[in-house]
Amino acid sequence: MEMSDRYCQEMRVDVSSVSTSMTTDPMTEEILRDDLRFYFMSPCEKYRSRRQLPWKLAVQIMKIFMITLQLILFGLNNQLVVSYKEENLMAFKSLFLKGYSGVDEDDYSISVYTRQNVYDSLHYVIDQYSQLGNLSVGPVSYAEENEKFLPLIICKKSYKRGSAEPSEEPFDIDAELETVCLSLDPESSKTWRMNNASFYELDFYRLVDIEITFALKGINLQTVRSHELPDCYTFFVKIVFDNSYHSGKVKLTLDFDAVSSVCKNWKISGTAQKNTHYYLIFDGFVIVVCLISAVLCTRSIILAVRLLQRFSSFCLENYNLKVCEDDQREFLNGWYILVIVSDVMAIIGSILKMEIQAKSLTNYDVCSIFLGTSTLMVWVGVIRYLGYFEKYNASQNTQNHI
Predict the structure, then answer these.
(1) Lowest mean per-residue pLDDT among 106-115, 182-191, 250-259, 268-277
(2) Cis peptide before 170, with omega less than 30 degrees from 0?
(3) Which residues make Cβ contacts (< 8 Å) with residue 190, sequence separation at least 6?
(4) Can you give the pTM of this predicted structure?
(5) What are phi and psi of 270, to 5 degrees?
(6) Strands 207-220 and 231-242
(7) Over the range 14-47, which residues count as b (16 or more CB within 10 Å of their CB) and which as e?
(8) Which has the least CB within 10 A, 71, 115, 241, 246?
(9) What is residue 160's three-state secondary structure?
């Protein structure tokens, strides 16, 4: 309302300063004045003025609750994934690291100090790996590719030449590193150590590190308890014997990269499939609401541009005046752009969530980024509506008193 009055006052002042007499249609000017006044009204004022229901406000309120609930449900599901990975990491450390007590030492898992302990730990990893099917209580097995087990790879990295006895001088060190690797098939683990005995002859004064890598398959069955379809994982495990400091302390670390994939040939009875359908229907409804919100905001932007064009043409034709850029920006509501961006991100996130629920995709991180950002933008958009209530808007209250 203030914006339209300001425009009208400017037009009256400008009319007196124009030397050329121009006649304007009072009806056209009054209609334009009413449209300007109505455009800058709040949803409550528009309802009191023309009994026009604030559809955009109603859709935004509905969208806030729906998107927030959707993010909570996805977060609970993602929490199961995070806990599954953390518990598997702890299980692998207990399975493959000899003497692991369940507590890491700083940035590594455990440490050994004697040659015999290094050999024992190295043999322990290989023995545990070869007996994995009889040891693990979880649904973990060897990873396969083309119906063949992926082998365990063990590599030792050493200085190319070295002779470093503290009681003897000079030292003879070649800093260039050489790497020797061997592969172990789980099915031939019994004869592997005998056939490669020379590989275990470690020159500790030259040894930099030993790296053991292998791949395992697992399935997250705890999602079934939460009425969700399970995820299948491939764990790329890496165990490192770090002797790079040559301080008499060899650090053992275990870490893995967990890559989720779609389980093949799964068949689950009970309520999991039914509840998945309910989640898919809810996500589809969220997409519909976001589409309605984006359409309403886009429509408001188009109407604002048309109103600006009408106002600019009126001023130019009747008063030979051009609307300045600051006044033109008053017609462009940045909140609408924010809402449209949040709607687009919510739609993309909902589609990704539906694909994850249907186990067609397993990329939780990208989905969480879209859903989290869209939820943040939706709640930030609430700030706009607080300006329509005088008790929450100090600037508007002060202006009204003045």
Answers:
(1) 268-277
(2) yes
(3) 130
(4) 0.68
(5) 115, -145
(6) antiparallel
(7) eeeeeeeeeeeeeeeeeebbebbbbbbbebeebe
(8) 115
(9) strand
